[in-house]
Protein 1
Amino acid sequence: MISDIPFLECAPLEDRGADTRGAAEAPTRTARNCDLYIRIFGREYSETTIKEYCEAAEWLIRCLTYVKRVKRSDERLTRFVERELKNRFEFHQFRGEKDLFERIGEDLRRLVLEILQEGLEARTKSKEEAHRVETEEQRRVTRVPLEEAKVPFKDEDHLSSIVAVTVALELGLRKELMKRGIKAERVSIGILLNTAKEFKLIDEREMTIIREILYIRNPAIHAGKIPDRRTVESALEETRRVLRKLESVDRWRNKVK
């Protein structure tokens, strides 16, 4: 079906012949090197599928995600969808193969048209720039005390601003949870938000706001869609408010000690 769409070629992993890589390594490397990754989550939990998902997300691979509607599924998969997937990507829920195949076909044709319109070269440059900015912001915010971190907003650099906002929020939450003995260095952003809420670092409204900010960031990183000044300005203000709250919670905690 996929290979029937103009400009697309699909080669299933199991049909690619012998490989010197181990069985566990081959899927993740393939996910990293592909131009488009289609991920489908059904009823059962698969460690390999989750690893492929993480690899594709880390390398900013353009992804189409589909989740099957089932009455009962593996609890681990349900937690993954609720805590991780919903916080990072939009996905389509399907009921059966016919619905799934039709939707994938529609999404792929739309995606091919978008890529042709934007130009492959421009898309590549925007992704590289977004990846560079994200890496720089992570290093910059880590080097200085979080409460003194200055989120860039001058020169109309909205990409750097929205990346810095999400980095500052994520590091702030991880820092406060680690002070409470929680191993939060490497947990996903979805689990991070739920854990922060459980420990009352953020409330339901703040959790929703952070998710909305992440929804602004993801198209900027994955598709080069830079938000406008007003959107970034609102995200900056909400971020400052959340960080001030985290700082005040930390001061209160130190006084109690």
Note: The chain has two domains: 2-118, 120-256.
Protein 2
Amino acid sequence: MFRTQIYIILTTCFTLVASNPVYAIENMSDSHSDNYFQSTLIIDEIPGRLNGDNNFPPDRLVHYASNGDIIFETNMLKIPYDAVRLDDISYWVSLIRENALWRISTDSKTLAVINVGGYPCAFEVLANGNLLVAGWDDDVPGFVKEFTPERKIVWQILDLKWPWKAQRLKNGNTLIADGGNHRVIELDQEKNIVWQKIGFGYPAKAYRKE
């Protein structure tokens, strides 16, 4: 019998600054280049906190090859929180202080900016190139929005509270960790709840294994 598997990470702290400033967020494989085989992309948020200075050294994004060499590094970012490398060797990065996703090149040029209307806590690059973003702001209800690369919103839900993560499922539905409402929900394309689990503290992440 098939059993749906859900992986949920709970947190009792929902501050935008984590206690550990280093996030190893993506272990990547690329058959086209030895440099990218099992390389690791790291967001280093507020590294200056180790020195007692929240502003220096600045936040950075670092991409390491499997042998430890640096493939790419930039410190032009303001509270980066999530990042994905694209096949063209550019990067999408969520920037909390900018309320936006930036697409940057390996020479640190800004190629595109998508203003999402709040803190972009997490995002996913979909198979069609669109970006699924979960976020919120102090005076903005929580949201999950799907943007085209041209910044057009093609799907959204706005009545959430502190959603930290959204995952687009193979069936087209969207799994959301709706932290402030203490629940994890699955919505269909018409935004109907087709599955949910409630009674959590503040579910920060939820992943479905497919």
Note: The chain has one domain: 6-208.
Protein 3
Amino acid sequence: MTRTTIHLAALGLAAVAAFAGVASDVSAHRRGDGRGDGRDRFGLRGLIAAIGDAGTREFTASVRGREARVIVTEDAMIFRNGSPATFEDLAVGDHFRALGRPIARDPFVFEARALGAFDGTTIPGRRAHAEGAIASLDAAAMTFVLHNGRRGTDVTVAVGERTRIWKDGAEADFAALAVGDRALVRGLLESTDAGRVIRAILVRVATPGGGGGRRR
């Protein structure tokens, strides 16, 4: 399969207890949404059992009662308890879900390019995607409001340093976004005091009449 989308593996269940009670597995994502994503077809979830040196960026995980080796890439997007984090923030006992690919076709040797971890005291967010028109932008906060005219709903999207943005088929940054652009967003949905926020992993944008629209 080619051109599969970046999905941060679904981090949410009804509660952490439910999350912890589910034996973890490896799964393939089959839907494709754009360029640059073909390496990230698989998700892995489990429990961190041991952590190697920061220099190796590896940890050992328990996945359905089997031992798995997870290698976190240097440019991986990492969240812990719903906030941006680093490899050094991970802890033994954390539940995790990762997106990336098996190495040498071995599902239990895994290269992670996006990782979400929870220590058991936080209710995880959940995978989310949204599309619509950009209604407003806040450059200082690195957020924008996405309006879905068909549903009549708005959602705030937060962009981080490692969010991947594509506009009209080319890689871009937050400054390239404009009110009125059509956007497709994938990331992690969280509930805050201010309402729902999607922490974006991937943003694909097209100007009206541009060439970066959704591919079928």
Note: The longest strand covers residues 66-80.
Protein 4
Amino acid sequence: MQVALLVCVCVASVAALLPSLAPTITINPLVSTIKMSSTVQIFGKVKELQAAGEKVTSLCVGEPDFPPPKAVLKATVDAVNSGQTTYTAVQGTMALRTAISKDLHRRKDTQYDPNTEILVSNGAKQSMYQAVLALCGPGDEVLIPSPYWPSYPEMVALAGATPVIVPTKLEEGFLLQPDVLETHITDRTKCLILCNPSNPSGAVHPESLLRKLGGVLEGSPNVAVIADEIYERLVYSECPLTPQAPQASQTHV
């Protein structure tokens, strides 16, 4: 923060001393191609109305209307009081990564090495964007089933790749169909972003359908699956959730 502030002050000082140079400082053209998140816009309006005394029920961001469990709050306080307030390893503490690995094995019967295959981030948006940035670039196409989280196409655009919207149908429960997926895969396809349960539709792809989608992807081994499973614990049915595209686990991010 101090470094960023220093840089800003220095730039402002140079611009003041050399006003003729100020117009030459430009913004990356890529910024102008990115649309503001509609979720962020609506959430900002909600906060504005609430600050004005209005009673507003917000349905725009993925957060509950109740506090975290008391055990989580206590663990947070205990961590602060015990001095755990310094930097951790960039990929997350080994204790946390090991716990995540055990949880995935217990709930999904999957094996991930906490040393090399698990990375802790500040949130889903960071994880998704970094996955896209690491895998995709100019000339690549990323398949995004519709309806979709508004941030997906912008993440792809920031990476220089092209978002390709794959339609789903209301009468099919907004579920991605194998034949539709297959027709949208080209030589330029690099990734499929699969959100299950889906945000915003709430559709849940059952295991049988996931296996069929995995079968399609087996024919395109160069296509990776970026699985957004942020809402996997908010399922109000008996439909079991399994790892996305299980038959293509070698390309599952």
Note: Residues 200 and 211 are 22 Å apart (CA to CA).
